[in-house]
Amino acid sequence: MNEASTGGAPRAEPAWRPVPRSRAYELVVDRIEEQIVAGALRVGDHLPPERELASWLEVSRAAVREAIRTLEAHGVVSSSVGSGKGAGTVVTALTSGALTRMLRLHVALTSFPMDDVIEARVMLERTSASLAAREASPEDLEPMRSLVDAMDDPALDRERFNEFDTRFHVALAEAAGNRLVADMTIAIRESMRHRVLAGFRSAPDWAATSAVLRAHHRGVMEAVEARRGELAADLVEEHIRYAYTSLPGFRTGEG
Amino acid sequence: MNEASTGGAPRAEPAWRPVPRSRAYELVVDRIEEQIVAGALRVGDHLPPERELASWLEVSRAAVREAIRTLEAHGVVSSSVGSGKGAGTVVTALTSGALTRMLRLHVALTSFPMDDVIEARVMLERTSASLAAREASPEDLEPMRSLVDAMDDPALDRERFNEFDTRFHVALAEAAGNRLVADMTIAIRESMRHRVLAGFRSAPDWAATSAVLRAHHRGVMEAVEARRGELAADLVEEHIRYAYTSLPGFRTGEG
Protein backbone atom coordinates (compact mmCIF):
# COMPACT_ATOMS: atom_id res chain seq x y z
CA MET A 1 0.00 0.00 0.00
CA ASN A 2 2.97 2.29 0.25
CA GLU A 3 2.84 2.53 -3.52
CA ALA A 4 -0.78 3.65 -3.28
CA SER A 5 -0.17 7.13 -4.60
CA THR A 6 2.34 6.40 -7.37
CA GLY A 7 0.47 4.48 -10.09
CA GLY A 8 1.45 4.69 -13.74
CA ALA A 9 0.86 1.07 -14.82
CA PRO A 10 -2.66 -0.08 -15.80
CA ARG A 11 -5.19 -0.34 -12.99
CA ALA A 12 -8.86 -1.01 -12.41
CA GLU A 13 -11.19 1.78 -13.54
CA PRO A 14 -13.90 2.89 -11.09
CA ALA A 15 -17.11 1.11 -12.03
CA TRP A 16 -19.95 3.24 -10.63
CA ARG A 17 -23.25 1.44 -10.29
CA PRO A 18 -26.53 3.21 -9.54
CA VAL A 19 -27.72 3.14 -5.91
CA PRO A 20 -31.04 1.27 -5.60
CA ARG A 21 -32.44 2.00 -2.10
CA SER A 22 -33.25 4.64 0.48
CA ARG A 23 -30.83 6.02 3.14
CA ALA A 24 -29.18 7.10 -0.04
CA TYR A 25 -26.20 8.82 1.57
CA GLU A 26 -25.08 5.64 3.34
CA LEU A 27 -25.15 3.80 0.06
CA VAL A 28 -23.10 6.55 -1.55
CA VAL A 29 -20.55 6.07 1.25
CA ASP A 30 -20.59 2.31 0.51
CA ARG A 31 -19.95 2.88 -3.20
CA ILE A 32 -17.00 5.17 -2.52
CA GLU A 33 -15.54 2.72 -0.01
CA GLU A 34 -15.91 -0.10 -2.54
CA GLN A 35 -13.86 1.86 -5.05
CA ILE A 36 -11.14 2.49 -2.45
CA VAL A 37 -10.93 -1.15 -1.32
CA ALA A 38 -10.95 -2.29 -4.98
CA GLY A 39 -7.94 -0.05 -5.60
CA ALA A 40 -9.77 2.05 -8.18
CA LEU A 41 -9.65 5.19 -6.02
CA ARG A 42 -6.34 5.90 -4.35
CA VAL A 43 -4.77 8.47 -2.08
CA GLY A 44 -4.57 11.78 -3.95
CA ASP A 45 -7.31 10.90 -6.45
CA HIS A 46 -10.20 13.32 -6.91
CA LEU A 47 -13.75 12.15 -6.43
CA PRO A 48 -15.95 12.85 -9.47
CA PRO A 49 -17.80 16.18 -9.24
CA GLU A 50 -20.89 16.08 -7.03
CA ARG A 51 -23.24 16.55 -9.98
CA GLU A 52 -21.77 13.61 -11.94
CA LEU A 53 -21.61 11.31 -8.94
CA ALA A 54 -25.27 12.06 -8.17
CA SER A 55 -26.25 11.30 -11.75
CA TRP A 56 -24.20 8.07 -12.04
CA LEU A 57 -25.44 6.72 -8.74
CA GLU A 58 -28.99 7.99 -9.36
CA VAL A 59 -29.28 9.82 -6.06
CA SER A 60 -29.85 13.45 -5.12
CA ARG A 61 -26.97 15.89 -4.84
CA ALA A 62 -27.94 16.30 -1.18
CA ALA A 63 -27.24 12.60 -0.63
CA VAL A 64 -23.82 12.94 -2.26
CA ARG A 65 -23.07 16.00 -0.13
CA GLU A 66 -24.07 14.17 3.06
CA ALA A 67 -21.92 11.18 2.10
CA ILE A 68 -18.89 13.40 1.51
CA ARG A 69 -19.43 15.11 4.88
CA THR A 70 -19.46 11.68 6.54
CA LEU A 71 -16.27 10.60 4.79
CA GLU A 72 -14.67 13.90 5.79
CA ALA A 73 -15.60 13.19 9.40
CA HIS A 74 -13.77 9.86 9.06
CA GLY A 75 -10.76 11.61 7.55
CA VAL A 76 -11.09 9.56 4.34
CA VAL A 77 -11.51 12.54 1.99
CA SER A 78 -10.85 16.25 2.26
CA SER A 79 -12.63 18.97 0.33
CA SER A 80 -11.52 22.37 -0.75
CA VAL A 81 -13.53 24.97 -2.60
CA GLY A 82 -12.46 27.03 -5.63
CA SER A 83 -11.62 26.09 -9.18
CA GLY A 84 -7.84 25.55 -9.13
CA LYS A 85 -6.00 22.29 -9.67
CA GLY A 86 -6.22 21.21 -6.02
CA ALA A 87 -9.90 22.12 -5.64
CA GLY A 88 -12.57 19.47 -5.13
CA THR A 89 -12.76 16.37 -2.98
CA VAL A 90 -9.59 14.32 -2.70
CA VAL A 91 -8.94 10.91 -1.12
CA THR A 92 -6.53 11.46 1.77
CA ALA A 93 -3.98 9.16 3.38
CA LEU A 94 -5.23 8.17 6.81
CA THR A 95 -2.81 8.58 9.64
CA SER A 96 -1.81 5.79 11.89
CA GLY A 97 -3.24 7.79 14.81
CA ALA A 98 -6.66 7.84 13.16
CA LEU A 99 -6.67 4.04 13.00
CA THR A 100 -5.65 3.68 16.63
CA ARG A 101 -8.30 6.11 17.73
CA MET A 102 -11.13 4.43 15.83
CA LEU A 103 -10.08 0.94 16.85
CA ARG A 104 -9.75 1.98 20.50
CA LEU A 105 -13.24 3.42 20.48
CA HIS A 106 -14.63 0.36 18.74
CA VAL A 107 -13.09 -2.06 21.20
CA ALA A 108 -14.44 0.10 24.04
CA LEU A 109 -17.99 0.19 22.62
CA THR A 110 -18.45 -3.11 20.79
CA SER A 111 -19.65 -5.91 23.02
CA PHE A 112 -16.73 -8.24 22.44
CA PRO A 113 -16.57 -10.99 25.09
CA MET A 114 -13.68 -10.16 27.46
CA ASP A 115 -12.09 -13.56 26.74
CA ASP A 116 -11.88 -12.64 23.04
CA VAL A 117 -10.19 -9.34 23.88
CA ILE A 118 -7.67 -11.08 26.17
CA GLU A 119 -6.81 -13.69 23.51
CA ALA A 120 -6.37 -10.93 20.93
CA ARG A 121 -4.03 -9.07 23.31
CA VAL A 122 -2.03 -12.22 23.97
CA MET A 123 -1.64 -12.79 20.21
CA LEU A 124 -0.64 -9.18 19.50
CA GLU A 125 1.77 -8.80 22.42
CA ARG A 126 3.43 -12.20 21.86
CA THR A 127 4.12 -11.03 18.31
CA SER A 128 5.39 -7.64 19.51
CA ALA A 129 7.71 -9.27 22.07
CA SER A 130 9.20 -11.68 19.49
CA LEU A 131 9.63 -8.95 16.90
CA ALA A 132 11.17 -6.56 19.43
CA ALA A 133 13.66 -9.24 20.57
CA ARG A 134 14.68 -9.77 16.95
CA GLU A 135 14.55 -6.26 15.51
CA ALA A 136 14.81 -3.53 18.14
CA SER A 137 18.00 -1.52 18.60
CA PRO A 138 19.11 -0.57 22.13
CA GLU A 139 17.73 2.93 21.40
CA ASP A 140 14.34 1.44 20.49
CA LEU A 141 14.31 -0.32 23.86
CA GLU A 142 15.21 2.78 25.86
CA PRO A 143 11.56 3.87 26.43
CA MET A 144 10.69 0.42 27.85
CA ARG A 145 13.63 0.55 30.23
CA SER A 146 12.76 4.07 31.46
CA LEU A 147 9.20 3.02 32.16
CA VAL A 148 10.24 -0.08 34.09
CA ASP A 149 12.52 2.13 36.19
CA ALA A 150 9.82 4.76 36.69
CA MET A 151 7.42 2.08 37.96
CA ASP A 152 9.83 1.27 40.81
CA ASP A 153 8.83 4.48 42.60
CA PRO A 154 6.91 3.23 45.68
CA ALA A 155 4.99 6.53 45.87
CA LEU A 156 3.10 5.87 42.60
CA ASP A 157 -0.65 5.64 43.07
CA ARG A 158 -2.69 3.15 41.06
CA GLU A 159 -3.77 5.70 38.43
CA ARG A 160 -0.21 6.73 37.75
CA PHE A 161 0.99 3.12 37.82
CA ASN A 162 -1.69 2.30 35.23
CA GLU A 163 -0.49 5.16 33.07
CA PHE A 164 3.10 3.85 33.08
CA ASP A 165 1.83 0.30 32.61
CA THR A 166 -0.13 1.34 29.48
CA ARG A 167 2.91 3.21 28.19
CA PHE A 168 5.14 0.16 28.77
CA HIS A 169 2.94 -1.99 26.53
CA VAL A 170 2.79 0.79 23.93
CA ALA A 171 6.62 1.06 24.03
CA LEU A 172 6.93 -2.72 23.55
CA ALA A 173 4.62 -2.56 20.51
CA GLU A 174 6.58 0.34 19.06
CA ALA A 175 9.93 -1.36 19.66
CA ALA A 176 8.65 -4.24 17.51
CA GLY A 177 8.73 -1.91 14.52
CA ASN A 178 5.59 -3.18 12.78
CA ARG A 179 3.29 -0.18 12.51
CA LEU A 180 0.06 -2.10 11.84
CA VAL A 181 0.63 -4.58 14.69
CA ALA A 182 1.62 -1.68 16.96
CA ASP A 183 -1.52 0.30 16.09
CA MET A 184 -3.75 -2.66 16.85
CA THR A 185 -1.88 -3.44 20.09
CA ILE A 186 -1.99 0.15 21.28
CA ALA A 187 -5.68 0.52 20.49
CA ILE A 188 -6.62 -2.63 22.39
CA ARG A 189 -4.37 -1.86 25.38
CA GLU A 190 -5.66 1.71 25.59
CA SER A 191 -9.27 0.59 25.28
CA MET A 192 -8.64 -1.51 28.40
CA ARG A 193 -7.18 1.31 30.49
CA HIS A 194 -10.36 1.59 32.53
CA ARG A 195 -10.60 -2.18 33.05
CA VAL A 196 -7.00 -2.43 34.15
CA LEU A 197 -7.46 0.42 36.63
CA ALA A 198 -10.58 -1.31 37.98
CA GLY A 199 -8.44 -4.44 38.38
CA PHE A 200 -5.80 -2.48 40.30
CA ARG A 201 -8.44 -0.94 42.55
CA SER A 202 -9.81 -4.40 43.36
CA ALA A 203 -6.42 -5.79 44.46
CA PRO A 204 -6.67 -6.63 48.18
CA ASP A 205 -2.93 -5.98 48.67
CA TRP A 206 -1.75 -3.36 46.20
CA ALA A 207 1.85 -3.40 47.42
CA ALA A 208 2.10 -7.14 46.71
CA THR A 209 0.25 -6.93 43.39
CA SER A 210 2.32 -4.03 42.11
CA ALA A 211 5.52 -5.88 43.06
CA VAL A 212 4.42 -8.82 40.88
CA LEU A 213 3.55 -6.50 37.99
CA ARG A 214 6.92 -4.73 38.26
CA ALA A 215 8.73 -8.06 38.16
CA HIS A 216 6.69 -9.12 35.10
CA HIS A 217 7.56 -5.96 33.19
CA ARG A 218 11.23 -6.22 34.11
CA GLY A 219 11.27 -9.87 33.01
CA VAL A 220 9.79 -9.05 29.60
CA MET A 221 12.22 -6.18 29.09
CA GLU A 222 15.25 -8.29 30.04
CA ALA A 223 14.20 -11.17 27.78
CA VAL A 224 13.81 -8.73 24.87
CA GLU A 225 17.23 -7.21 25.62
CA ALA A 226 18.74 -10.71 25.77
CA ARG A 227 17.20 -11.35 22.28
CA ARG A 228 15.24 -14.29 23.69
CA GLY A 229 12.06 -13.78 21.66
CA GLU A 230 10.26 -16.97 22.65
CA LEU A 231 10.87 -16.31 26.36
CA ALA A 232 9.76 -12.68 26.03
CA ALA A 233 6.56 -13.84 24.31
CA ASP A 234 5.86 -16.42 27.04
CA LEU A 235 6.47 -13.86 29.81
CA VAL A 236 4.22 -11.22 28.27
CA GLU A 237 1.48 -13.85 27.85
CA GLU A 238 1.85 -14.94 31.48
CA HIS A 239 1.66 -11.30 32.57
CA ILE A 240 -1.54 -10.57 30.63
CA ARG A 241 -3.25 -13.74 31.89
CA TYR A 242 -2.14 -13.02 35.48
CA ALA A 243 -3.82 -9.60 35.50
CA TYR A 244 -7.00 -11.04 34.04
CA THR A 245 -7.31 -14.02 36.38
CA SER A 246 -6.00 -12.63 39.66
CA LEU A 247 -7.63 -9.18 39.84
CA PRO A 248 -11.40 -9.62 40.29
CA GLY A 249 -12.18 -6.03 39.25
CA PHE A 250 -10.62 -6.65 35.88
CA ARG A 251 -13.42 -9.01 34.86
CA THR A 252 -16.24 -6.84 36.09
CA GLY A 253 -14.77 -3.44 35.25
CA GLU A 254 -15.62 -2.30 38.79
CA GLY A 255 -12.67 -1.59 41.11
CA MET B 1 -16.83 -5.03 27.85
CA ASN B 2 -19.90 -7.23 27.57
CA GLU B 3 -20.94 -5.82 30.93
CA ALA B 4 -20.64 -2.31 29.48
CA SER B 5 -24.34 -1.53 29.66
CA THR B 6 -25.21 -3.17 32.97
CA GLY B 7 -23.55 -1.07 35.66
CA GLY B 8 -24.89 -0.80 39.18
CA ALA B 9 -21.67 -0.83 41.22
CA PRO B 10 -19.65 2.39 41.75
CA ARG B 11 -17.85 3.72 38.69
CA ALA B 12 -15.80 6.68 37.52
CA GLU B 13 -17.77 9.91 37.13
CA PRO B 14 -17.27 11.91 33.91
CA ALA B 15 -14.72 14.64 34.59
CA TRP B 16 -15.32 17.35 31.98
CA ARG B 17 -12.48 19.80 31.52
CA PRO B 18 -12.79 23.00 29.47
CA VAL B 19 -11.47 22.91 25.89
CA PRO B 20 -8.54 25.32 25.44
CA ARG B 21 -7.93 25.71 21.70
CA SER B 22 -9.49 26.29 18.29
CA ARG B 23 -10.94 23.63 15.95
CA ALA B 24 -13.22 23.40 18.91
CA TYR B 25 -15.47 20.65 17.55
CA GLU B 26 -12.54 18.21 17.19
CA LEU B 27 -11.60 18.84 20.79
CA VAL B 28 -15.18 18.21 21.85
CA VAL B 29 -14.97 14.87 20.01
CA ASP B 30 -11.73 14.14 21.88
CA ARG B 31 -13.32 14.91 25.25
CA ILE B 32 -16.28 12.62 24.57
CA GLU B 33 -13.96 9.83 23.39
CA GLU B 34 -11.85 10.23 26.52
CA GLN B 35 -14.92 9.68 28.69
CA ILE B 36 -15.83 6.55 26.72
CA VAL B 37 -12.36 5.03 26.90
CA ALA B 38 -12.15 5.92 30.61
CA GLY B 39 -15.36 3.96 31.16
CA ALA B 40 -17.24 7.02 32.43
CA LEU B 41 -19.63 7.05 29.46
CA ARG B 42 -21.03 3.69 28.45
CA VAL B 43 -23.39 2.21 25.90
CA GLY B 44 -26.89 3.50 26.61
CA ASP B 45 -25.73 6.57 28.56
CA HIS B 46 -27.04 9.99 27.56
CA LEU B 47 -24.64 12.77 26.68
CA PRO B 48 -25.22 15.91 28.75
CA PRO B 49 -27.56 18.41 27.05
CA GLU B 50 -25.90 20.49 24.33
CA ARG B 51 -26.18 23.69 26.37
CA GLU B 52 -24.47 22.20 29.45
CA LEU B 53 -21.74 20.48 27.47
CA ALA B 54 -20.96 23.77 25.69
CA SER B 55 -20.76 25.58 29.01
CA TRP B 56 -18.60 22.96 30.78
CA LEU B 57 -16.16 22.68 27.88
CA GLU B 58 -16.24 26.46 27.24
CA VAL B 59 -17.06 26.13 23.54
CA SER B 60 -19.95 27.31 21.39
CA ARG B 61 -23.10 25.24 21.01
CA ALA B 62 -22.29 25.10 17.30
CA ALA B 63 -19.03 23.30 18.13
CA VAL B 64 -20.91 20.79 20.30
CA ARG B 65 -23.46 20.25 17.55
CA GLU B 66 -20.72 19.66 14.96
CA ALA B 67 -18.96 17.21 17.30
CA ILE B 68 -22.15 15.23 17.82
CA ARG B 69 -22.76 15.10 14.06
CA THR B 70 -19.23 13.70 13.63
CA LEU B 71 -19.75 11.05 16.29
CA GLU B 72 -23.08 10.15 14.70
CA ALA B 73 -21.28 9.68 11.38
CA HIS B 74 -18.98 7.23 13.19
CA GLY B 75 -21.94 5.42 14.68
CA VAL B 76 -20.73 6.22 18.22
CA VAL B 77 -23.84 8.13 19.33
CA SER B 78 -27.36 8.44 18.06
CA SER B 79 -29.65 11.39 18.55
CA SER B 80 -33.37 11.64 18.72
CA VAL B 81 -35.47 14.76 19.13
CA GLY B 82 -38.38 15.33 21.51
CA SER B 83 -38.64 15.45 25.25
CA GLY B 84 -39.46 11.84 26.23
CA LYS B 85 -37.27 9.47 28.20
CA GLY B 86 -35.39 8.20 25.13
CA ALA B 87 -34.83 11.67 23.64
CA GLY B 88 -31.39 13.22 23.41
CA THR B 89 -28.01 11.87 22.38
CA VAL B 90 -27.19 8.35 23.51
CA VAL B 91 -23.95 6.36 23.29
CA THR B 92 -24.61 3.39 21.01
CA ALA B 93 -23.04 -0.07 20.84
CA LEU B 94 -20.91 -0.29 17.74
CA THR B 95 -21.47 -3.31 15.56
CA SER B 96 -18.73 -5.67 14.64
CA GLY B 97 -19.41 -4.79 10.99
CA ALA B 98 -18.64 -1.13 11.68
CA LEU B 99 -15.21 -2.06 13.05
CA THR B 100 -14.40 -4.28 10.09
CA ARG B 101 -15.43 -1.58 7.68
CA MET B 102 -13.37 1.17 9.29
CA LEU B 103 -10.33 -1.03 9.73
CA ARG B 104 -10.53 -2.26 6.13
CA LEU B 105 -10.64 1.31 4.88
CA HIS B 106 -7.79 2.33 7.14
CA VAL B 107 -5.56 -0.50 6.02
CA ALA B 108 -6.37 0.36 2.39
CA LEU B 109 -5.57 4.07 2.85
CA THR B 110 -2.83 4.21 5.50
CA SER B 111 0.65 3.88 4.07
CA PHE B 112 1.62 0.78 6.03
CA PRO B 113 4.67 -0.94 4.51
CA MET B 114 3.49 -4.10 2.74
CA ASP B 115 5.84 -6.22 4.86
CA ASP B 116 4.09 -4.98 8.01
CA VAL B 117 0.70 -5.93 6.57
CA ILE B 118 1.94 -9.41 5.61
CA GLU B 119 3.40 -10.02 9.10
CA ALA B 120 0.14 -8.85 10.67
CA ARG B 121 -1.80 -11.25 8.44
CA VAL B 122 0.53 -14.12 9.31
CA MET B 123 0.04 -13.42 13.04
CA LEU B 124 -3.75 -13.16 12.77
CA GLU B 125 -4.26 -16.18 10.53
CA ARG B 126 -1.87 -18.40 12.52
CA THR B 127 -4.00 -17.59 15.57
CA SER B 128 -7.24 -18.23 13.65
CA ALA B 129 -5.94 -21.59 12.37
CA SER B 130 -4.87 -22.76 15.86
CA LEU B 131 -8.11 -21.60 17.48
CA ALA B 132 -10.21 -23.20 14.72
CA ALA B 133 -8.38 -26.53 15.13
CA ARG B 134 -9.08 -26.42 18.86
CA GLU B 135 -12.56 -24.93 19.01
CA ALA B 136 -14.52 -25.30 15.79
CA SER B 137 -17.34 -27.82 15.48
CA PRO B 138 -17.76 -29.72 12.18
CA GLU B 139 -20.64 -27.33 11.39
CA ASP B 140 -18.33 -24.32 11.91
CA LEU B 141 -15.95 -25.84 9.38
CA GLU B 142 -18.61 -26.51 6.75
CA PRO B 143 -18.21 -23.08 5.03
CA MET B 144 -14.45 -23.65 4.62
CA ARG B 145 -15.01 -27.06 3.10
CA SER B 146 -17.63 -25.76 0.64
CA LEU B 147 -15.30 -23.00 -0.50
CA VAL B 148 -12.38 -25.39 -1.03
CA ASP B 149 -14.68 -27.56 -3.13
CA ALA B 150 -16.03 -24.57 -5.05
CA MET B 151 -12.47 -23.51 -5.93
CA ASP B 152 -11.91 -26.83 -7.72
CA ASP B 153 -14.07 -25.67 -10.63
CA PRO B 154 -11.55 -25.23 -13.48
CA ALA B 155 -13.84 -22.70 -15.19
CA LEU B 156 -13.36 -20.08 -12.42
CA ASP B 157 -11.77 -16.88 -13.63
CA ARG B 158 -9.27 -15.00 -11.47
CA GLU B 159 -11.83 -12.52 -10.12
CA ARG B 160 -14.15 -15.29 -9.02
CA PHE B 161 -11.26 -17.33 -7.62
CA ASN B 162 -10.17 -14.27 -5.61
CA GLU B 163 -13.71 -13.92 -4.27
CA PHE B 164 -13.74 -17.54 -3.03
CA ASP B 165 -10.19 -17.16 -1.73
CA THR B 166 -11.19 -14.08 0.34
CA ARG B 167 -14.24 -15.95 1.63
CA PHE B 168 -12.09 -18.96 2.59
CA HIS B 169 -9.90 -16.80 4.82
CA VAL B 170 -12.99 -15.09 6.28
CA ALA B 171 -14.52 -18.54 6.99
CA LEU B 172 -11.31 -19.66 8.73
CA ALA B 173 -11.36 -16.53 10.93
CA GLU B 174 -15.02 -17.09 11.78
CA ALA B 175 -14.48 -20.79 12.56
CA ALA B 176 -11.91 -19.68 15.16
CA GLY B 177 -14.75 -18.18 17.17
CA ASN B 178 -12.92 -15.07 18.45
CA ARG B 179 -14.93 -12.11 17.18
CA LEU B 180 -12.23 -9.47 17.66
CA VAL B 181 -9.51 -11.56 15.99
CA ALA B 182 -11.96 -12.44 13.21
CA ASP B 183 -12.87 -8.78 12.63
CA MET B 184 -9.23 -7.76 12.35
CA THR B 185 -8.41 -10.72 10.08
CA ILE B 186 -11.38 -10.07 7.81
CA ALA B 187 -10.63 -6.36 7.56
CA ILE B 188 -7.00 -6.93 6.61
CA ARG B 189 -7.75 -9.75 4.15
CA GLU B 190 -10.51 -7.71 2.51
CA SER B 191 -8.33 -4.62 2.30
CA MET B 192 -5.90 -6.75 0.26
CA ARG B 193 -8.49 -8.02 -2.22
CA HIS B 194 -7.18 -5.71 -4.94
CA ARG B 195 -3.55 -6.64 -4.26
CA VAL B 196 -4.31 -10.35 -4.34
CA LEU B 197 -6.16 -9.97 -7.63
CA ALA B 198 -3.20 -8.02 -9.06
CA GLY B 199 -1.00 -10.91 -7.90
CA PHE B 200 -3.23 -13.43 -9.67
CA ARG B 201 -3.22 -11.34 -12.86
CA SER B 202 0.59 -11.26 -12.80
CA ALA B 203 0.95 -15.05 -12.58
CA PRO B 204 2.66 -16.25 -15.78
CA ASP B 205 0.90 -19.64 -15.57
CA TRP B 206 -2.46 -19.24 -13.87
CA ALA B 207 -3.37 -22.92 -14.12
CA ALA B 208 -0.23 -23.91 -12.22
CA THR B 209 -0.56 -21.07 -9.66
CA SER B 210 -4.20 -21.79 -8.94
CA ALA B 211 -3.40 -25.49 -8.49
CA VAL B 212 -0.87 -24.55 -5.78
CA LEU B 213 -3.35 -22.22 -4.09
CA ARG B 214 -6.05 -24.93 -4.13
CA ALA B 215 -3.65 -27.41 -2.53
CA HIS B 216 -2.72 -24.83 0.14
CA HIS B 217 -6.33 -24.18 1.07
CA ARG B 218 -7.15 -27.89 1.15
CA GLY B 219 -4.10 -28.52 3.35
CA VAL B 220 -5.12 -25.85 5.87
CA MET B 221 -8.68 -27.16 5.97
CA GLU B 222 -7.58 -30.77 6.48
CA ALA B 223 -5.13 -29.84 9.26
CA VAL B 224 -7.89 -27.91 11.04
CA GLU B 225 -10.29 -30.87 10.65
CA ALA B 226 -7.58 -33.21 12.00
CA ARG B 227 -7.28 -30.85 15.05
CA ARG B 228 -3.61 -30.29 14.27
CA GLY B 229 -3.44 -26.61 15.21
CA GLU B 230 0.31 -26.12 14.89
CA LEU B 231 0.37 -27.71 11.43
CA ALA B 232 -2.63 -25.64 10.31
CA ALA B 233 -0.87 -22.47 11.53
CA ASP B 234 2.34 -23.39 9.68
CA LEU B 235 0.44 -24.17 6.47
CA VAL B 236 -1.53 -20.94 6.50
CA GLU B 237 1.70 -18.98 7.09
CA GLU B 238 3.41 -20.79 4.20
CA HIS B 239 0.42 -20.01 1.99
CA ILE B 240 0.40 -16.29 2.79
CA ARG B 241 4.15 -15.97 2.26
CA TYR B 242 3.95 -17.94 -1.01
CA ALA B 243 1.45 -15.53 -2.54
CA TYR B 244 3.51 -12.54 -1.48
CA THR B 245 6.88 -13.80 -2.74
CA SER B 246 5.93 -15.68 -5.88
CA LEU B 247 3.41 -13.35 -7.53
CA PRO B 248 5.20 -10.18 -8.67
CA GLY B 249 1.96 -8.18 -9.07
CA PHE B 250 1.20 -8.70 -5.41
CA ARG B 251 4.07 -6.45 -4.36
CA THR B 252 3.35 -3.69 -6.84
CA GLY B 253 -0.44 -3.89 -6.83
CA GLU B 254 -0.37 -3.98 -10.65
CA GLY B 255 -1.47 -7.22 -12.31
Descriptive notes:
The structure is a homodimer of 255-residue chains. Mean pLDDT of chain A is 85; it is low at 1-9. Chain A contains twelve helices and two strands. The first copy, chain A, has helices at residues 24-37, 50-57, 61-73, 96-109, 114-135, 138-150, 158-175, 179-191, 193-202, 206-225, 229-246, 248-252; strands at residues 77-80, 88-91. In chain A, 66% of the residues lie in helices and 3% in strands. Chain A has two domains: 24-91, Orthogonal Bundle (Arc Repressor Mutant, subunit A), CATH 1.10.10.10; 96-252, Four Helix Bundle (Hemerythrin (Met), subunit A) (Up-down Bundle), CATH 1.20.120.530. Chain A has 255 residues and is mainly alpha-helical. The first copy, chain A, has a two-stranded antiparallel ribbon. Chains A, B: Residues 22-94 form the HTH gntR-type domain. Chains A, B: It comes from Nocardiopsis flavescens.
Q: What's the helix count of chain A?
A: 12
Global structural class of chain A? mainly alpha
Radius of gyration of chain A: 23 Å
Distance between the termini of chain A: 43 Å
In terms of per-residue confidence, which ranges of chain A show pLDDT below 50 for 5 or more consecutive residues?
A: 1-9
CATH architecture verdict of the largest domain in chain A: Up-down Bundle
Total count of strands of chain A: 2
Instruction: Report strand % of chain A.
Output: under 5%
Order of helices and strands of chain A: HHHEEHHHHHHHHH
Mean pLDDT of chain A: 85
Number of domains of chain A: 2
> What does the largest sheet of chain A look like?
2 strands, antiparallel
Helix content of chain A: 55-70%
| Backbone shape of chain A | elongated
Oligomeric composition of the shown chains: homodimer
GO molecular function, one term (chains A, B): DNA binding
Keywords (chains A, B): DNA-binding, Pyruvate, Transcription, Transcription regulation
InterPro entries (chains A, B): GntR_C (IPR011711), TF_FadR/GntR_C (IPR008920), Tscrpt_reg_HTH_GntR (IPR000524), WH-like_DNA-bd_sf (IPR036388), WH_DNA-bd_sf (IPR036390)
Pfam families (chains A, B): FCD (PF07729), GntR (PF00392)
